[in-house]
Amino acid sequence: MESSSLESDSTEVFPEDKTKKGEKSYKVRNGSQRYPFSVSVQRKGSHYATGALIEKKWVLTVAGEFYNVRESIKFFRVRLGTVNCKKGGVLLPIKGVEIHPAYSYKNPTYDVALLRLAVPAEYSDTLKPIPLTRIKGKVLSAKFLATYWPRLIVRGQVLPSSAQERVQPNSMRVSTQKMIPWSWCQSLMSTLNQTLDESSLCLDPIMSHHSLCLPDAGAPVTADDGLWGITSGWTSDNCLGNPSPTIFTRVSSPVVRAWLDSQLTTL
């Protein structure tokens, strides 16, 4: 198997000093880590979405990309344990898809789904699950890591020829992404006729290496304490003229975590 050797700075998670009584706030800095949890979800041999292995039989990914394909899940596989989505690691079939019940198609909130693997993953140095963060407090500012594989064609749109993702598109990418303050993002999203709640956090769109209209759906958003969330595939209708932030669903949100716990305990 191939393993990722990509690394970045160490992570610290600590309470913010200036908080209201009874309120916990946190800052997050990026973490030095490998990425054996990263999963390439594939359809008929091509990369379709990214995800994160969280248990032997479960991959957490984005809901929107699977909302209308649940009946054809037999055409999908997951590739784990490699940084190349075309080779190496192991390729496993998917048994089923569970979409968060609060998710509404083409909306950014609760945009998470679980893929149940037909065969349990066998852990190794290059194939391991990632723990879910338990931090539930308000986040004042943060930088996270996101891992993903680029998609050159999404919903009929082709990635611009200038995008760096066209170089070695089969290789996994790791990017540092800065959080947008939640109140500012909530205000911005209201101008786009969208509402956010505590289940979502917002990241700056990555303008330097791919199109604003082709987000990296399902990318795990991580820090040293584990998985913080999964990026949504949602974009604003006028994504080029009025770029929208990257939205990710927090796994520690009570509504999301309760759903995850209930699903992971099923046989």
Layout of helices and strands, plus pairs?
Layout: E1 13-15, E2 25-28, E3 38-43, E4 46-55, E5 58-61, E6 76-80, E7 90-99, E8 113-117, E9 138-148, E10 153-154, E11 157-158, E12 173-180, H1 182-191, E13 200-203, E14 220-223, E15 226-231, E16 246-250, H2 254-264
Parallel strand pairs: 2-9
Antiparallel strand pairs: 1-2, 3-4, 3-6, 4-5, 5-8, 6-7, 7-8, 9-12, 9-14, 10-11, 12-13, 13-16, 14-15, 15-16
Keywords: Disulfide bond, Hydrolase, Protease, Serine protease
Region (Disordered): 1-26
Domain Peptidase S1: 19-265
Look at the structure and give the mean pLDDT.
79
> How many structural units, i.e. domains?
2
CATH class of the largest domain: Mainly Beta
Distance between the amino and carboxyl termini: 29 Å
User: What is the CATH architecture term of the largest domain?
Assistant: Beta Barrel
| Element order: H for helix, E for strand | EEEEEEEEEEEEHEEEEH
**Main beta-sheet strand count, sense and barrel state:** 6 strands, antiparallel, barrel
Count of extended strands: 16
Give the name of the CATH superfamily of the largest domain. Answer: Trypsin-like serine proteases
Tally of helical runs? 2
- Low-confidence stretches are 1-33
Oligomer: single chain
